[in-house]
Description:
alpha/beta, tt1808, chain A, Rossmann fold, 6 domains, seven-stranded parallel β-sheet, 34 helices, ATP binding, DEAD/DEAH box helicase
Amino acid sequence: MLNQNPEQIARDNIDRQLMACGWIIQDKKKFNLAAGLGIAIREYQTDIGPADYVLFVDKKPVGIIEAKREEEGVRLTTVEDQSSQYANAKLRLLNNDPLPFVYESTGEVTRFTDYRDPKPRSRNVFTFHRPETFVQWLSQPKTLRARLHDIPALPVDGLRDCQITAITNLEQSFRDQKPKALIQMATGSGKTFTAITFVYRLLKYAKAKRILFLVDTKNLGEQAEGEFRAYTANDDNRLFTELYGVTRLNSSFIPNDSQVYISTIQRMYSILKETELDESAEEENPNERAYQSKEPIPVGYNEKVPIEFFDFIVIDECHRSIYNLWKQVLDYFDVFQIGLTATPDNRTFGYFNQNLVSDYGYEKAVIDGVLVPYNVFTIETEITKNGSVIKMGEQVDKRERLTRKKFWEALDEDEAYSGKQLDKDIVNPSTIRTIIKATKDNLPMMFPDRVDSNGHFEVPKLLIFAKTDSHAEDIIDIVREEFGEENKFCKKITYRSDEDPKSVLQQFRNDYYPRIAVTVDMIATGTDIRPLEVLLFMRDVKSRSYYEQMKGRGTRTCSLEELRAKGTPMAKYSKDHFVIIDAIGVEQSQKTDSRPLEKLPGLSLKDVLQSVAMGNTSEDMLTTLANRLIRLDQQLKDKDKQQFSEKANGLTITQVVKKLLHAYDPDVIANDELRIRSEMRGQAPMEIEKAITKANQELIEQAVAVFHNPDLRDFIVDIRKKYDQIIDVVNIDSVTKIGWVKDHAEAATALITDFKQWIEKHKDEITALQIFYAQDYKNRSLTYKMIKDLYEVLVVEKPALKLNLLWDAFATEEDSEAADTLIKRAPRTEKPKQELVLLVSLLRKVVGQDEWLTAYDKTVDLKFQEWAFKKQAGAGIKFTVQQMHWLRMMKDYVANSFCVEKDDFDLPPFNAEGGLSKLWALFGDQTDAIIKELNEVLAA
């Protein structure tokens, strides 16, 4: 209806919601309480005035709705006194008791209070409750929140201390009516058992109606179902499923006769949306893979699953998939929420209102003997660390990424690659072989009790984390070859494995074979493999929580009997630790809590291009295309980029990406709007809005115009395929560092101590050291010759000392210190390549000029930026472009030669640009002061 005021709009929205929830809405002058179970009468008169809505169930008044316009949503709690007065008032013609169910609503935001609760407290609800629900609630002598006070003390027999703490604190949280609670328990400490125990108590003592156990992968749902079916409470000899119904949802149908429902969050979302979901969509964590719209498709009310269908939701792995699109599932239900995780991040703490009822991390679990500790064994190879080069003209194998089809090709230019490109752009079988061989050779040292009298070594259960399925295939081939074993010795466990992944996983957990399993991500979380004793990381992990989950595969305890029975019959001791073999630097790499940025990871590049060409120009689609092109730009060679431009009307990939991102950039759109409003000032508002809409559409059309050319689309798809993996069989890898991390730490300490003792011994003899130790070093000139002299003395007296190894030693020491003290520091700068700069960097660290290991040239860069900013701040001088160019040249010279003097301006790079005379022309009588000031500032 047009021209409605805000109050009328709010009431129309409330009417629609009430009708959807099964209420019949009537006018106070024409009411019929026999028309249905639930009747909502507008403007019903009370002894203090008309109430906006009075709710009747089975002809009896039970509740009040106080309606407010949408703008009042931020102040709904201030209306509670008013709605409470109506609830306590006498209704016209009735001698009623106070009405227990009270809502305040704008039609967009609704709050609800059950005044029968102990300490009644309002809460946000998605919509209104059904009349049938009120009938059920009123038939019970106590409300759910009151019944939570009736839960008896926890019997502790058979429970670990951490489980007792979690359940006891959670039940107190329930009694305090806190809507959300977070349980942090280390992987392997019994999170699911803890959850089933408190679920059992909620059903038995609090008479909870239904409880939803929410997971984010089908695998976790199946495991949870198995644990529910195997659970026996310590106060009842019957199985859980003999007492309560347990249903794992695998279709859109929800039976209403169970007490526990297990579902993936994506299935519950599809049920609320009344759409079908293929089981394949439940195989992977949706936060990592599935389509995520910037504007989530809103969940609407579903009368088959009303908001009160569940009383509690238990969210497993709650740090992962309860945000963005999926959060709506949790917002929909009127429930208590309990999160379970081993690795919460700040987001998780925030979502659960910082109500951490259990804080039982890995370290505590190890101390209690609930989990086993681990040792780290490093394998570092030359190529994983420094990469390599395949020379032009070499005949190399190339392999299509998906089909793995090979073909020969001669390189037409040198192919240099870094360690990070391994197993993505470049496959070096020698690197994989070197790591596997080093692992095989060192396992007997790690597990000396596994060798029999004939010298036969029994390989412990070992899990390898690979980068991709293709990488996993390469690893499996080499593992079988290097260990001299048959197919069943090493198998792959991934979502795309040819064998049923669950059966292979079952074999790995319980049978002798396979001894070694290779996975990409399937068993990173939620899988109990007690006999597992070694984790080999051949892929890096940037997510802190995901890495902790991956490590958690090895943390579980295992008795000697179970270890022997489930695959390692030669074991002589129970599992008291596990080993992480770090072959990729995963222990040292920076970890974050970030998540993928791509919006449409499930679509191929070809499909994205076709969609855009067909007119799908949504923000998600254009953002995804931009993201794919950015990645492509990093891979293409110059000649390929030139071809792209020729087919894209002369635009570079960067320019095309910029247009795609600008199409929906709020700042760009806002600037266009301001421009149009300014240019059309005085014209009809409708014309102005039409022009703004047209300008927005033109931005989008300009962004996608080049993709109407099929030749460009074909070129992008074909050029992506061209970049197949190169198989580097030319460069043979070798181990550069191997051993236990604690041994590395001891060696690093010894190296640092030796260097510090040498410095201390010579600090009064060598000029460079005197300057470093002098209190007035700012006023002393450290020259290139001094550092050169120091370096030559060091080489003569300590010929075995390598400065690059000394840098690594300091890095090891700092990493250990940061880990022990939980200090956060900025990422370390790259190791200087020039020996003298490296020496100065180390000296600054030793004497305390730099708190953390920092490349001297980077220190100089930073100090120069600060100096230049201060010099030009406020009313200070303003350097010209030419002056700044010369100042930067001087800065770069200092970074490599430690000071700059007048004679140096006769040398490169200064002499090529005019030398000292040009410097005088630029700075005049300030020249000497500038040289002196730069030397002092940059040396500090």
